[in-house]
Predict the structure.
Amino acid sequence: MRMMRMICVLLLALCLLGTLCACDAGGKNPNPDSSVTDDSSADASTGDESSQPADDGKETYTVTVLDADGNPVSGAMVQLCKETCIPTMTDANGVATWSLAEDEYKVSFAIAPTGYAVEEAYYFEGDATEMTITLQAAE
């Protein structure tokens, strides 16, 4: 019993230490000489990250996968490709997102969703960064 208590105390101490190490510097700028300010508290209060401009040189690419009835297809393995492919799964709303350098990418399915026919590749139109793919039932 005493050994179990010591193990529990040790685990609790490790968890506390891990939590303290994982915390950021309290939102303070680690480089006080830098002219960059931390506006994360202002961004978080709006709750709408999509209205904030990307200042890291990356663009957000969004693919929505729907069935023929307009219902989201969740759990589809979609990939964004240039020289290499970066796979991700669609969420409960049928949405997959990537944050990458602005470029021309193609979209494909790493694995075709069960019961659906897919094309070899899909392409963003013009400068678009959003795409909706409507899948038809496989024949």
Q: What stands out?
A: Residues 56-137 form a domain with the Immunoglobulin-like fold (CATH 2.60.40.10). The two ends are 64 Å apart (CA to CA). The chain has two helices and nine strands. Confidence is low (pLDDT under 50) at residues 8-51.
